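Justification of resources, computational component.

The compute hours requested in this renewal are based largely on the per-chain cost of generating structure records like the one below. Each record pairs the submitted sequence with a full structure-token output. That output is archived, and it is also reused by downstream analysis tasks.
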Amino acid sequence: MTPFLPTLFLSVVAAWSQSAGSPWSEGQRLYDLGDFQGAVEFYRKAVANDPRNAAWHYDLGNALFKAGQTGRAIASYQRAFDRAPRDPDIRQNLDFALRRAGEELIAAGVPPLLFAAFHLFSERELAGLQWLACWLTLSLAGLCLWKQSLRTDLVPWAAAAGLLWFVSAGWWLTLRGLTPPRRGVIATSSAEIRSGPGDNFNVSFTAPEGRRVQIISENGEWAEIGVIKEGVKGWIPTASLEEI
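The structure output for this chain reads:
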């Protein structure tokens, strides 16, 4: 009887998501009808109301991709991946869209298993894990000091909690350190990257739609970006950029 409850639960969720009263039904209806721009507008509102929900970002990415907005789709897929890195559908669609833009989710030379292990948890999950480990470590250490009779039994557990705290904190700091403070995606076709913040500056190079960039600074309606893959930087109108 054990497998019955999860199966029943998933069946109920699936049926509910298809019902007229579910929050997904209208967006899915528009998507199925081929009204991708209508689906985009619906999912944008859903994301605004619940920005932490990876599913909304993923659905928005699908609608944007079908609407021909590859760059903005990649930005939405990236937000979904940041929130739910273990989801295989999110990872697959992000990688597929990135390949359209001449990139790959897993950079050349990086072992897939190492990438999967490093992105096993989201930044938010790692932050929660380290605070939980911190609380356990301090609580067990306090019990060791308070109850001398339990010290022999509690010391190994306190040490294990301390190790978990150390590993999760280091993992979290590394993930934050490798992620630029502000990221974006080129949202227009063959965007011209200029040497300064204005149309009067020379075009230094062009970047394809969907290329992920680091946002360095802003000056009015212009943003200074660093194109991560090519290792170059320049200025682009903020309207041509979708911030992640």
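The longest strand covers residues 212-219. The chain is about 55% helix and 15% strand.
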